[in-house]
Specification:
Blueprint lengths: L3 H13 L4 H13 L1 H19 L11 H15 L2
The structure holds zinc ion.
The site of zinc ion (ZN) has 7 residues, from α1 and α3.
Amino acid sequence: VICCHELIDFLADYDEGTLSPAQRRAFEEHLVICPPCVRYIEEYREAVRLSRECLCDDCPPPLPEEVNQRLVAAMKAARGK
Ligand SMILES: [Zn+2]
């Protein structure tokens, strides 16, 4: 079983489909037992979606500080600290 830190490391590769089958299984097994990581991943995917939505120069930064803070808070919660 992987820990939360490893799960975060795997996340980008998981979404790109570049993990080995064993890594994918470990990733998915961790999500079953770790709700904080599920929430973190939802926040991460939402952030990625938002950052892809707007590519023009005139708009404000796609990732406001408030969203960053929530991501950091979710990671800390996932580590249980
Ligand atoms: Zn976790």
